[in-house]
Amino acid sequence: GESISRMLSQAITATHTVHAVLGTAEFFEFALKNPYGVQHTVTVEVDHPELSVILDPREWRHFKELTKSATPVEEEMFHLRDDLRPQVYLRPKETVRIPFKYQTFSADPAVVVAQVGASPRFELFPVSFQVSGGKPIAILRVKVEPQPHVVDQTFRFYHPELTFLKKTIRLPPWHTLPGAPVGMPGGEPEMFVRCSDPDIICETKNMGPGEPQDIFLKVAGGPSPQIKKFFVAIYTDVWLAAPVQIWQFYLHSLQRLDVSCTAGQLSRLSLLLRGTPAPRRVQAFTSHPQELEVDPDGAFLLPANGIQDLYLGVRPRRAGSRFIYLNLVDVESHQLVSSWLLCLSCRQPLISKAFEISLPAGGGRGCNKRITYTNPYPSPRLYFLYTNRPDLLQFKEDSFEGAGGEVYTIGLRFAPSQAAGEEEILIHINDHEDKNEETFCVKVTYQ
């Protein structure tokens, strides 16, 4: 009985293959025939969220024009049941074409069909056409073979963990996008967006004719060091047939660390590292090694389930608010163990003296100058020299010792500049604990 049933089922089964690309709608029609000598109402049973019957005749017509399909479009062919399953009425022996659309927005990282020698992965699911009593008169097996998709642009955002990233991105003028229609009637088209992650709020705002359009994103960040990856498809047609651009996004969740500091002065702080169940050899890496020192600065052993301090020294070169990224990496497996976002709020030190000098522009040799500094203390002191522009200024000596009340001459060497203009160079004079004693400002005019 089972084998007869299986053979009968195979006799009414057809297969259609869809080569699915992220965001692109794949349109096809299925010829459904009523094999009986009496009329029937046929229910189309589709149990896959990415495959749907096209019910709107305008959408059906749009896809037929895109695919240059010559078959007719029938108005109001479908009736929706209470459970929203489409039904079609068939006269005896009548054949109609049922329009389908397959469209996926879920980005599958395992699409490996582009790799040489990889056998294509595919998904198979049935569509059943049933008369009353649930008896099938036809079965369509849809075979989906995922294809790799193009990425037009990649965005990376670094954000404090467990917070919402809210971002507005301005879209380029639509006519500059590859694949945009030429000479479109009615001026600029409306833009539409869809996101590969249903939990992300992604919408576009039309600001009126002639105004640029913005994409608004609201993404929930996970715990550090999680990296969330998703895609946004951008369309210029209301039926979302094929995206004109696909954007890839990475959201790096980092532990936030607020640091209040002074430009040119070393601020010290420490981070508590917690060991994982197994011991690991780790090393800290930073986005701004000239402004952030780490100790230990090489690879070190993080004991299993233990606790260890990582010491930081922050010396910003300029005032203002900015971010520095710090990663702790397993040097053997190259895994990210921890990630921090240092949010610097940096004050300008008090300028105690200002100088103005003129230097020739256009290369050539550098220039030597001298300035004096008086030790204001009655006892000998050790001083360290720093500048915000080591590319333009070097010291003859990076440190000096001055006796009580002694006037010390600091030798300066200015590097040649290729272009004319003005630069403000700061000279930080710090004590033995790296606290700022005084800051001089040298305004250099290259002419």
Shape: elongated
Tell me about the biggest sheet?
8 strands, mixed
- Strand tally: 31
What's the tally of helices? 2
Class derived from helix and strand content: mainly beta
Description:
The chain has 2 helices and 31 strands. The N and C termini lie far apart (98 Å). A hairpin with a 5-residue loop joins strand 30 and strand 31. The longest helix has 11 residues, at 57-67. The chain has helices at 2-11, 57-67; strands at 13-20, 26-33, 40-46, 51-53, 78-80, 86-90, 95-102, 123-131, 135-146, 153-160, 164-170, 192-195, 201-205, 214-220, 227-235, 245-262, 267-274, 280-286, 292-295, 300-302, 307-314, 320-330, 336-347, 351-359, 367-374, 381-387, 393-395, 399-402, 407-414, 421-430, 436-446. It has 447 residues and is mainly beta. The strands form 7 sheets. Strands 10, 12, 15, 16, 18, 20, 22 and 23 form an 8-stranded mixed beta sheet that branches. The chain has a 6-stranded mixed beta sheet with strand order 1-9-8-3-6-5. Residues 15-148, 155-252, 264-347, 352-447 form the NPHP4 Ig-like domain. It holds the Pfam family Ig_NPHP4_2nd.
